[in-house]
Amino acid sequence: MKFSARKVVLFRTGYKTLLFGLFIALLFHSCDMSVEKEKVEKILNDTFFTEQAENVEMHYSDSGTLKAIIYAPTLERHPVEEPFTIFDKGITSYFYGPGGKVENSIKSNYGISYDSKKIVELRNDVRVVNIQQEKLNTDKLIWDQNTGKIYTDAFVKITTPENIIFGEGFEANQDFSEYRIFKVKGTISVNEENK
Q: Is pLDDT above 50 for 5?
């Protein structure tokens, strides 16, 4: 079989065109792949997966000294731009003093912690007990870890060994050893109640 010079030139030109076409196709395909890869990476970076745990026990310490133990039946952490953690089945916290003894405890039926703000909001039957066995009952309590304060604008009931005090609005240091009630609604002497 003989090829004329013209057929050979066309064959070479066709071959070059075919190679050039394949090169362009691969180039566009790789561009498509990099675009797709960028899309996938963006979705993964923009998508925050909720973390869930059951029967949680968290220990907090400072310089090797135990400061608190927190128990929760469930925990749901949302690692969004402003991360937060929900304790939708309640939370129980025990806070320890320098001697390793429990100084106070807090229990509630619901809690939410705003991680970056360092604020914890407790709701639904919040109960606080300090080392003097003074008790606080309310439906809402905020713990600001930045200031070391606990406070609420809701109705409160404080029970001491001597009195039961009702009020609206409350502020205390986080160990509940010093507190004040903003609007006292009434006081009942424990001795009078037992008569």
A: no
